[in-house]
Amino acid sequence: MSEPAALDFLKPLPPEQPYPRARAGWIGLLFGGLAGLVYTLCSQLANQSLLPGIPLAHHPFGVWGNLLASAGAGMLIGLLCALPRRAPLGVGLGLTALIAAFLGASLLSGAYRLAQAANPFLALLTLMGLGFSFLLLLPLMAGLRWGLARLLEGERRALLRGGLTLLALGGLTGMAGWLDSYPPETLTAVRAVQALVMESRGAGIPGAHPTLRTPQVLAGLTARRDLTYAFTPVYAADRREALRYAAGLGGGTAALEFADGWRLECVVDETLGAMACFAGGGR
C-alpha cells in the first residue's frame, strides 16, 4: 500500500482548541477571592466566638479591611493559578503567591519581623516552615487548578465534578480559618486581663477566671475607665517575653490598648496562679 493510500485511513485530528485565558482568569478571580474571604471571616468569627463580649482589635486593617485585603490576595492567587495554560506552572505560581500572602500577613500583624531573619537559627526555622507549608499546601493548590479546569470544560459532568471539588476546598479553607484562632493559653490570658479591667471599673465578674495573684493596683486602669479599649494581637512581643522571663512565668500573653494609646500588657500563668503586667504609652 502506498504511503498516500495509508494516510487516507487516518482520521484528521481536530484542531487544537485555544486556551480560554480570559474566562480562566475571571473564574480564578472569583473563586480565589471567595476562598480568601471565607478564610479570614472564619478566623475572625472563631476568635470572637471564643471570647464573647470582649472587644478585640482585628489588626492590621480592622474587620472589614482584613476581609477586603484577604479577598484581594485570594483573587491574585486564583488568577495566577488559573491563568497559565500549563497546569504545573499555574499550581506553582498560585502556591508561591499563597505562601507570600501568609508571610506578608505575619509581617503586618507582628507575628514575624524581618529582624528575626538576622538570627541564623530563626532564619533556618523560617525556611523549614516555608518548605513544609509548600508541601502541605501543594495538594490544595493542585485541587484548585483541577476544579477550575473542569469548570472551563463546560460539559455537565465536568461542571459537577469541578463544582464539588471547589466546594470541598471551600470547606477546608473555612475549617483552616476557624482553627487559626487564639491558642488556649492566650484565651486564658485575655479573659484574666479582661476580668482585671472590669474589676478596676467596679464591675467584677465572679468566676471569670481562676483566682490569680495580680500585681499592685494599676491606677492607670481606674483613670481610664471611661476610655474604650480593645485587645490587640497577642503574638509574643519582645517586652512581654522579657517580662515573662523576669517574672519566671509561663502561660499566655495578652495586651490591650486604650483609646489614647495607653497599653497594658500581661503574662498570665494559670498553672502558678500568677499574673505580671506592665503599662505605658498614651497621650
Question: Helix and strand layout, with pairings?
Answer:
Elements: H1 3-8, H2 21-50, H3 62-82, H4 87-109, H5 120-153, H6 156-179, H7 184-200, H8 219-223, E1 229-231, H9 238-247, E2 252-258, E3 262-269, E4 274-281
Antiparallel strand pairs: 1-2, 2-3, 3-4
Features:
283 residues; alpha+beta; four-stranded antiparallel β-sheet; 60% helix
Write a brief caption for the model.
With about 280 residues, this protein is an alpha+beta fold. The chain is built from nine helices and four strands; from the N terminus they run ααααααααβαβββ.
Give a structural overview.
- This protein has 283 residues and is α+β, with helices and mostly antiparallel strands.
- Helix content is 60%, strand content 9%.
- It is built from nine helices and four strands; from the N terminus they run ααααααααβαβββ.
- Strand 3 and strand 4 (274-281) form a beta hairpin.
- Helix 2 (21-50) packs antiparallel against helix 3 (62-82), helix 2 (21-50) packs across helix 5 and helix 5 (120-153) packs antiparallel against helix 6.
Number of helices: 9
Pattern of helices and strands:
HHHHHHHHEHEEE
Q: Biggest β-sheet, characterized?
A: 4 strands, antiparallel
Tell me, rounded to a whole number, the average pLDDT: 77
Uncertain segments: none
* Portion in helices: 55-70%
Instruction: Choose one word for the global shape.
Output: elongated
Structural class: alpha+beta
Report how far the terminal alpha carbons are from each other. 97 Å
CA radius of gyration: 26 Å
Count of distinct strands: 4
Approximate strand percentage? 5-15%
Number of domains: 2
Strand order of the largest sheet: 1-2-3-4
